[in-house]
Design brief:
The complex is a heterodimer of chains A (132) and B (185).
Chain A: H1 2-20, H2 26-73, H3 77-88, H4 91-97, H5 102-120, H6 123-131
Chain B: H1 4-14, H2 17-38, H3 42-58, H4 68-86, H5 124-132, H6 136-146, H7 152-159, H8 163-182
Helix pairs in contact in B: 1-2, 2-3, 2-4, 3-4, 5-8, 6-7, 6-8, 7-8
The chains are: A mainly alpha (132), B mainly alpha (185).
Chain lengths: 132, 185
């Protein structure tokens, strides 16, 4: 194993030997790096600008929608009156508005009489009447 | 001294060109040796060196950390392979001989004794020539291992071959170099 390592180290040393004295051509690399860096910064700024514009547009859209919703949902007097009239026109509403029928009146009188009778009658007899 | 990854991040995140320059200087020697081993001429290797750094610069935003040297070696190898492909000099990694056995499989098992020490008076030019005549697969594994410091697992993955093949190729390369250079005493 040691010999394998020796060969690897030897080969590596020799391969790098004559390269060591040579300075890499840095100018082209660095000028490309600078240009690329500028381009990346510019792209980043442009992305931020686009995102900000989209954010503003989205905020305006939300604000507008909210305003429209508020206006639509606020109560309007004529609509409220119409709504109440519609409600009163339903079956339950008609009963409320119309005069009570003769049957209903008779029943109400009977109940009223019974209540009056209970007030005068002793407690036991009233309970007995109820059980009947 | 700043870590390689810090230098690369300094460039990719803050656009610090000085950090990139430091990184280029730090990795220039092994990368040039690596590319000279992979490519036929010094001029090819120099162009590939420039191209490698151009790719590093352009893809700096994609660097997510990890060892920088193997990262650079993978890019450098990719550049070298592209150049070889363009010039039609790329040889298939798994060349088989007429008998159906791969080159790697035909290398005899001659592991050296642990006590032996390797000695040679071979010059840099001798070594470069010896590396140049190695079969494509063993040559790439050798260079990625000794110059790029990639693990065998990374090398196998990079070359698209099984781990065993990468190990066999490394052994092939070392034994061949021993034969070629060991006699120069």
């Amino acid at each position: 194993m040691s010999e394998f390592r020796d060969i690897e180290d030897f080969v590596k040393g020799r391969l790098e030997e004559d390269v060591k004295g040579e300075a890499p051509r840095m100018e082209e690399i660095l000028s490309l790096a600078t240009a690329e860096s500028f381009a990346r910064v510019a792209e980043h700024r442009s992305r931020v600008r686009r995102a900000a514009a989209m954010l503003v547009a989205a905020s305006l859209a939300i604000a507008f929608s909210f305003a429209v919703l508020c206006i639509d949902s606020s109560p309007r007097p004529e609509a409220t009156v119409a709504c109440v009239i519609d409600l009163l026109r339903t079956a339950d509403g008609e009963e409320t508005l119309s005069e009570p029928s003769a049957d209903v009146q008779t029943e109400e009188i009977a109940v009223a009489e019974m209540l009056l009778a209970w007030q005068d009658a002793p407690y036991e007899s009233a309970i007995a009447d109820l059980r009947l | 001294m700043e870590e390689d990854s810090e230098l690369l991040f300094a460039y990719s995140r803050r656009g610090d060109v000085e950090s990139l320059a430091a990184l280029v200087r730090r990795h220039a020697v092994w990368m040039q040796a690596f590319l000279r081993g992979l490519l036929p001429t010094v001029a090819d290797a120099e162009d590939a060196f420039q191209e490698t750094w151009a790719r590093v610069v352009k893809s700096a935003g994609k660097y997510r950390g990890g060892k920088v040297k193997p990262y650079l070696a993978v890019i450098a190898r990719s550049v070298a392979i592209d150049r070889l492909r363009q010039t039609g000099r790329l040889v298939s990694l798994d060349v088989e001989d007429g008998e159906g056995a791969s080159v790697a499989e035909r290398i005899p098992d001659a592991s050296p004794s642990p006590v032996e020490r390797f000695e040679s008076k071979a010059t840099a030019e001798d070594v470069r020539e010896a590396v140049r005549v190695l079969p494509e697969g063993p040559r790439q594994v050798l260079l990625m291992r000794i110059e790029g410091e990639l693990s065998f697992k990374e090398i196998a993955s990079e070359l698209g071959v099984p781990l065993g093949t990468a190990l066999t190729w490394m052994r092939t390369a070392t034994l061949k170099l021993k034969d070629m250079l060991g006699g120069m005493k």
